[in-house]
Amino acid sequence: VISPGSDDRAAISQCRYQSASSPGKTITVFVRRSPVADNDPGSVRSTLSDSGVSPEDVSGIGDHAFWAAGQLHVFAPDNLYLIVTVSGLGVGTDARQKAAGLARSALERA
Q: Model confidence over 10-28: pLDDT tens digits?
């Protein structure tokens, strides 16, 4: 846990996993749980789009999810926001599927 949060501040946690055999392959999971409804998928999507990134919707994870530039953004009930960042696996289908599997596992434990 990076920050435990409070009644008026979001709790934040981040974990980074690195391949022992391929140091360039990493996965980072960032989790934010807010005490208020300020995790807004529309705002995040708009910011990414304004930066020249085209988010692609991903179904079956949380309330809203999209893939953009090697990151899976997941918005779930109880003001939970996850970002799974995949490095060293490219940004294609394989990376997206690995990120989605990890996000599903994280949501089961949240």
A: 999 998 888 888 878 888 9
